[in-house]
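Ticket #4471: structure export looks truncated?
Reporter: QA, pipeline team
Priority: medium

Steps to reproduce: submit the single chain below to the structure queue and open the exported record.
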Amino acid sequence: EVQVAESGGGTVQPGESLRLSCAASGFQFKSFSSYAMSWVRRAPGKGLEWVSGINRDGGPIYADSVKGRFTISRDNAKNMLYLQMNNLKTEDTAVYYCATGLTGSGIRGQGTQVTVSS
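Actual output as written to the record:
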C-alpha cells in the first residue's frame, strides 16, 4: 500500500522560507518514479487548494498564487518529493499535503502545518 508522509512545516515570518518534504513508501507494482505527484493545501476555514504538481519526467506546474515563489522537485532515487517555499505570505498559512497524481486527488498523508505570521 502506497503511503506518503509530509514534514518540514513550521511557523515563519512573512518573507521567509520553508522546505517541505514528502517521503513516499509502499510501492509494489509501480515505482515512485512512475507517479506524477502534487502538493495541495487547506487554509483555515477553506477548502482544499491545489498548489503544484510534477510530472514523472520532472516537469513542474504551479498555481498562479505561488508561481515564482514555490519550487516543486523530486528525488526518485530516494522516493522523495519537495516543495521549496520562498517569500512566504500570510495567505500561505495552511496544512500542506503531498499526494499521488498531478491534481492532488490521490493518496495523501496527514499533512504538515505551515504558519506565516508576523
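Status: closed, not a bug. The export was complete when the record was re-opened. Leaving a note from the reviewer for reference: Strands lie at 3-7, 10-12, 18-25, 37-42, 48-54, 60-62, 70-75, 80-85, 94-100, 112-116.
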